[in-house]
Amino acid sequence: MSMYFPLKKLFGSWLNRTAALAALAMLLGLSGCAAQPGMKAGGDNRVQFIEELARTPAACQTYRQAYVSGFGENVAALAAENAEAQGQAQMRLSDSQQKLEAEGLTKTGCLRPYCIIEPLQNGRLDTWCGYRLDADEGDDLYQWLDWETVQTALKRSQRG
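-> structure tokens emitted (160 positions)
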């Protein structure tokens, strides 16, 4: 038996798209759970993590940047319902993965960040990318570091 929802005609396509995007965001978030290593031992996890990122090959940094920008471009194209731009963003991401593999590296070995879609009002979409680490202190199990914060810390650590 089907239930009657009076606003379904008005909001039906938006609700379907929002539900699909929420499911996709959850799937992307959960898919990365196995990809991040635990980092509880030996002190400040943030410092250890930045040091570990700094030791990865330059091809990994290039891939991570391509992944984050490609993800953002893909979501913007999705929000604009622009299939051509979406295909171009996916092609750039595919190219970056092929370059990585040509170097003998893997996505997992490069410590790729989590990226999620954030549904906003009026059908707009935003993205967030960052890393999940074990918490150093407090009651939380994890701490989250956004992409920009990690990039700033990485540049600072490479300057010496």
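The chain has a mean pLDDT of 78.
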